[in-house]
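Forwarding these from the shared drive since the link keeps breaking.
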Amino acid sequence: MNPERQKLFQDGMRQLPTLPYPNSSRNGEALDTDEAAIWKRVLNYRLASFLRPRLLLETHPGVGVSTSLYRHASPKTDIFYGAAMLAPRVDLIDVDPFGSPWDTLQKVKHLISRNCVVQVSNGEAHAVRRNLRRGQKYPTRYFGRRLPQWVVWEYLPRLQSVIGLKVRFFYAFPTTVRAILAEKELPETLWEGCPRWMWWLRKYAVRALPGGLEGFHGGYGVE
């Protein structure tokens, strides 16, 4: 990990409370896998602290690192697991599969309302980067260094269309994209310190997207 990545990693760690986190090397589920894993948990913690949701759904809780943070941030929140949960109203949904999110999104779509905030991780970024078309539900021509174009021009608009909410923030890492969607505006302070493009994507996003996010009609903090 180079000095820039190490600083981002350490900055994220300082944002998190000291807890007895579960640990596992399975599918990168440990808290300290990389800077993207750290900042996913930072944003989870900030969102739960801000929203104080009554009901929270984690579709893929893994070993429970994010669960620990959700419980610490909002002790009165009822947390459910799995995509088949039935509830009249869910305030926060965390879709975090190892791979594509599309099948899970179809299973939880009936739980998403205008008042819901949805976080989605998409591991297809790894397949897009390496041009592994079998690992993509919607194969793209924007592979390799053009991955930022796939994120902005194809993936995020499709995600908004499927969920019916606006992208309020996202960050991209060479192996995953994390997006946060909501109908209502959310404070920019929730994303403070989290770069939109991580690692080498920062350099290639400038080249691939000379107009920045121009042309992507997302939500607050994205346009």
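-- next protein --
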Amino acid sequence: MGAENEGNMVVAALGDEWCVGGKEHRMTVLGDGRRVAVKPEYECADPRIARLLYDVRSPYLPRCLGLTSPERGDSVVRRGERNSIFSVQECLDTRFLEGREPLPFLECYPSPAVPSIVFEWVDGQTMRDIEKSALSSTRLEKWFDDILDGLAWLSQCAGSPIAHLDISPDNIVIAQSGDALLIDFSGARVLDGRARATEASRIYKEGYAAPEIFLGDLLPESDLYALAKSILSVWCDESAKTLTHSSIRGALCKLDPPFSERLRCCLSDDPVVRRDALRDCSLKPVTEERQLQCIKCEPEQMPTRDDDPCPYSLATCPFLEVADIICGE
């Protein structure tokens, strides 16, 4: 086993696992040779997130490919593991399963020691590892919007607000395409009160957690705060927990004024104020108020296209463009 220092980061090779700053990452391969990332099922706060990431297609979200074979490693129990959360799919909301096939089982080599979720492997660098000289206000704002669009699209598909709750520069990967992808959804939740909090679930990361997190309030706007802190952390080239009010003000002054103002909104203690950072042309997360309205409505009373227009156009949304082509055939 070898280890090397990269600034303050220690990377230790551990076979099919490795640690970065004390955090475990896992990589293995499928039978066809594709590299994939795997995450133990028991670490996931809300298994419905895996279902959504399997169904949803977005350049800003990692795709869930399925589950590791249940015939391998099921007898191993560690770190408070419960029974496999996908063994009978019973704890998944029926909305996410009705009319859909169960997640497929995949053979991985080497096989994880415990039942795990399989995600596509994204080639790229974490935002933390991007050279400071390669950063600019325009590029940072593009990544900022990539992450928001990915989360907003996921919320739209879920029909309820979703919060990632663990956004940091280490969980944002800049793909070779230049797009920013948010990874590690183990702490993410559909905010409808049905998520289960595992012992390993983490909703607090020093320097990045929004103020309401400390009061036990989990909101989609909490991700806006963490994302702004992540942007400022890489822009200042220091950890968010060491950022001061003075250094934040100085960093904001060096960014383009419109983007700087958006970040200021995100850093507000008031979650409602943070919503002003969202672009008018982007998909916005579903609000709790709309969620309650939809639950109370009968199917024929659900919001119509006129009540809930899609903010995208054919010129800006690849999904609508593909749908238009298919429908026109």
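Residues 3-120 form one domain. Confidence is low (pLDDT under 50) at residues 1-25, 72-94, 283-316.

- D.
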